[in-house]
Model the fold of this input.
Amino acid sequence: MLSPKRVRRRKVQKGRRRGKAYRGSALSFGIYGLKALECGWMSNRQIEAARIAINRHLKRTGKLWITVFPDKPLTKKPAETRMGKGKGSPEAWVAVIKPGRILFEIDGVAKELANQAMKRAQYKLPFKTQIIERWED
Amino acid sequence: MNQISLDVQSKPKVSKNGNRRLRRAGRLPAVIYGGADAPIGITVDSVKFHKMLNAIKRSTVFNLELDGIKTQTMIREWQRDPVAHKSILHIDFYRIQADTAVDVDVPVHAVGIPVGTKMGGVLETQLRRVSIRCLPLEVPEAFEIDVSALEIGDSLHVSDLIIPESAEILSDKDQPLFNVAGRTAEEEVAEPEEGAEGEAAAEGAEGAAEADTEEAKESEKAKS
Done:
């Protein structure tokens, strides 16, 4: 699963997700893409699940790009622990997603196959997404 | 030149909210610039412009009719909405002069199915647009290049494009346009199954994370 090799801060604050994704909102590599329509956190497990779903459907044809990276650590306190005694230990990595962000890009396959593959990935994600196609060329 | 013409209206100098009101009313804010004349703020009918986009390319020259005066323009730039797909917020039209060369990006399209893809390769697009300098009325809508002879490992470069004599390529001629990437039979055998790959990667990542935390603890101890 994707995770940073080393980080400056082991634990970070939660933060707020405001505004739209002005960066990373256009297709850069592929012809088809999956665009987030809502904000949310996308964990490295969800990225991996979506990647596997797409690759299994494409059957190793075409090319897939993951255009997000989970660089934010999430902490969790152990079960049945009283409040206090400091912040919990890092448990997961998430990517902060804002509306408009491109998550995956696909190239080298037919439109129908790309749509079917990304439909499978949509089921793995915790927010609404849209399958888009490059149109400016 | 394309015979398409688009009616536009002049726009009073408006604020950000004024532009939002325009968009809600079905008109897109835009600007015409280029040449010796001063830039003019205009508005364009949103539905008509989106319909026109189906008929033209970004490098097509067409007429803009403002107060009965026709101006030859081409689309230089546009701002997209980051969330709504295919939604345009603002357009820059570039006023052209027939005898002055312009710098434009022309899309490159692959024609045919490469031989290498039948042997398990994947056609990869490295460059989708090529910058050229030519007279505005001679700008091609797109370059087409035949990729059917490409085998695994082969590539086509900008220098392989057939361009009009009047045009000059501004992009690096050694840049690759298309290549067919693929794995040899030995590589495929060596690579593990999808699920196993994912699990192995997950274990590796967890191991790395644990190592990181241990290192961090050690460094904290050292500091204290």
Summary: Residues 32-75+92-133 of chain A form a domain with the Aldehyde Oxidoreductase; domain 3 fold (CATH 3.90.1170.10). Chain A has a mean pLDDT of 93.
